[in-house]
């Protein structure tokens, strides 16, 4: 194999998503990711101890991207309810655009105890994403402390449930045919929930 001088870790994560899309998570291997990145089969072990570490890194990447998507969606919005609604729409769109990441972010399989604890960043990036949700929901419903956390959970349930229904093919195709249709569906569902 030729000397590799790029960002191998990022290339391996990208390769992992491609493999998982084609073969499922079960068919994902560090060896196949290495092959696609054009490096030796031993090279990925400089970045990931094993497949579980690679999957945790993908989940971390997903939480980082989700937080950024939520922040972008709320940019320029001052009304707290408009901000939480925008985050909800961004959440659904993120899930549809990054289904491999999204499923890994919330699977219990990665929470199974291993001989070594997960990387320190794992909990932190997940907490950043949830913290943004709690902060935004707390402001929307004028809640603090544990009440803000509960508002965050309440605000999370609708976009998360909708995202899972879309990913599982439970929503009629005409409602999810384009990114714009998905965003409109998310807006409509969130508004119906708010008006209930």
CATH superfamily of the largest domain: Tetracycline Repressor, domain 2
Order of helices and strands: HHHHHHHH
Shape: globular
CATH architecture of the largest domain: Orthogonal Bundle
Q: What percentage of residues falls in helices of 4 or more residues?
A: 55-70%
**Tally of DSSP helical segments:** 8
Q: What does the largest sheet look like?
A: none
Count of discrete structural domains: 2
Give the terminus-to-terminus CA distance.
Answer: 60 Å
Relative strand content: under 5%
CATH class bucket of the largest domain: Mainly Alpha
Description:
With 196 residues, the chain is mainly α. It has two domains: 1-48, Arc Repressor Mutant, subunit A; 52-195, Tetracycline Repressor, domain 2, CATH 1.10.357.10. The protein is built from eight helices and no strands. Helix 4 (80-97) crosses helix 5 (99-106) and helix 4 packs parallel to helix 7. The chain is globular, with a radius of gyration of 18 Å. It starts with 7 loop residues before the first helix and ends with a helix. 33% of the residues are buried. Residues 112-118 have low confidence and may be disordered.
Keywords:
single chain, 196 residues, mainly alpha, Arc Repressor Mutant, subunit A, Tetracycline Repressor, domain 2, 8 helices, globular
